[in-house]
Design a protein that fits this description.
It is built from eleven helices and eight strands. By secondary structure, the chain is of the alpha/beta class. The chain has one domain: 3-Layer(aba) Sandwich (Arginase, Chain A). The protein has an eight-stranded parallel sheet, sandwiched between helices. α1 crosses α11 and α3 packs parallel to α4. The protein is globular and about 50 Å long. It comes from Candidatus Accumulibacter cognatus.
C-alpha cells in the first residue's frame, strides 16, 4: 500500500444538502478515531483541521440552485487545500460535509493528474448517481449534482473550479452501489456513457466481480481517488445519513470493496461525505466509516497465501 504521508482536511459544511447536520461530520470522524486508525499503519498523519467557510443560510433555491455562493466558496477553498497537499506529495483525506465537496476535491486531483501525466480513476461509492442538473431536480440541492459538474454539466462557477472544463471525462469515473436515480438522470447517464454498477448488478454478479470491473485497467501510473458517500451503505448498518436508501451493501460487501482498493496499492486521495451525526446512533456510522478507511489502508483479517 502507499507510503505517502496522509493529510486530513475537514470540510464542516452542509450547504449542498437538503438536511442539516453533515457539517458535524468531520468532528464525528475524529471522535471515532480516524487519525489513530490511519497512524497504526506506520504512516505520518497530519490533521490540517477544518477549512473555514460560510455558514448555511438555509434558503430556498434561486434559479435552480440552493446556496450557490456558499457552495462555490467551500469548493474553491477545498480545491486549493487539496491541491497544496497533492503538490507536497501527500495523500489528502477529506472529511465531509455533504457530497458537493467532491467538486472541489476531485477537480484538484484532476488538475494534479494533468500536470503530472497520471491517469485518473474515480470510484464513486454512493446510493445516488449525483448526476442531476438544475433542470432535473426540484430541490436545487447541489449535493445531487457533483458528478455532473465534474463532467462539465453545470454552472461555470462550479465546472471551472479546477481551471479545466470538464474536470474529468466520463471514462474516468465508476459509480458503485447506485439504487436511487431520477428518471431524467437515468437517461442523462446513459447518454454520457458513465459506467454505473447499480445494486441490481451487484446482486447479479457479486461484489467481487463488480469491483474487478471497476478497477480494471488501473496501473502504476494511475491516481485512484475514492469518493465515499456514507449512504452507499445499507441504512441498517449506517443510519447517520440524510438520504437513506434501503438495499445497500452489507458490512462485508463494503469491506470487500475497500480491501480490493487497498490491494491495488494505488489509493492516492479520499473523500468521506454525507455523514450526519444528528441522525446517527451513538456515532456508529462514523465508527463504521473509520473501519472502512482502515481496510482502505490495508487492514485485513489474515495474511493471504493465495488470491
Amino acid at each position: 500500500m502507499t507510503a505517502l504521508p496522509v493529510s486530513i482536511i475537514g470540510v464542516p459544511t452542509d450547504v449542498g444538502a437538503g438536511t442539516r447536520g453533515a457539517s458535524m461530520g468531520p468532528e464525528a470522524l475524529r471522535i471515532a478515531g480516524i487519525v489513530k486508525a490511519i497512524g497504526q499503519f506506520g504512516l505520518a498523519v497530519k490533521d490540517c483541521g477544518n477549512l473555514p467557510g460560510p455558514t448555511n443560510p438555509d434558503l430556498p433555491a434561486v434559479d435552480g440552485f440552493r446556496h450557490m455562493s456558499e457552495v462555490v466558496a467551500w469548493n474553491r477553498s477545498l480545491h486549493d487545500a487539496v491541491y497544496v497537499e497533492l503538490r507536497g506529495e501527500s495523500l489528502p483525506i477529506i472529511l465531509g460535509g455533504d457530497h458537493c465537496l467532491a467538486i472541489g476535491s476531485i477537480s484538484a486531483v484532476a488538475r494534479r493528474c494533468r500536470e503530472t501525466g497520471k491517469k485518473l480513476r474515480v470510484l464513486w461509492f454512493d446510493a445516488h448517481a449525483d448526476f442531476n442538473t438544475a433542470t432535473m431536480t426540484p430541490s436545487g440541492n447541489i449535493h445531487g449534482m457533483p458528478v455532473a459538474c465534474l463532467c462539465g454539466y453545470g454552472p461555470s462557477r462550479l465546472t471551472e473550479i479546477g481551471g479545466h472544463v470538464p474536470a474529468i471525462s466520463p471514462q474516468e469515473i465508476r459509480l458503485i452501489g447506485i439504487r436511487s436515480v431520477d428518471a431524467g438522470e437515468k437517461c442523462f447517464l446513459a447518454e454520457i456513457g458513465i459506467e454505473v454498477f447499480d445494486m441490481r448488478y451487484v446482486d447479479e454478479v457479486g461484489m467481487r466481480r463488480t469491483m474487478e470491473q471497476a478497477l480494471a485497467g488501473i496501473c502504476s501510473e494511475t491516481h485512484l481517488h475514492v469518493s465515499l458517500d456514507v449512504d452507499f451503505l445499507d441504512p441498517e448498518i449506517a443510519p447517520g445519513v440524510g438520504t437513506t436508501v434501503r438495499g445497500g451493501p452489507t458490512y462485508r460487501e463494503a469491506q470487500l470493496c475497500m480491501e480490493m482498493v487497498a490491494d491495488t496499492g494505488r489509493l492516492c486521495s479520499l473523500d468521506i461525505a454525507e455523514l450526519n451525526p444528528a441522525l446517527d446512533r451513538r456515532n456508529m456510522t462514523a465508527e463504521l466509516a473509520v473501519d472502512l478507511v482502515e481496510s482502505l489502508f490495508g487492514k485485513s483479517t489474515l495474511m493471504r497465501m493465495h488470491q
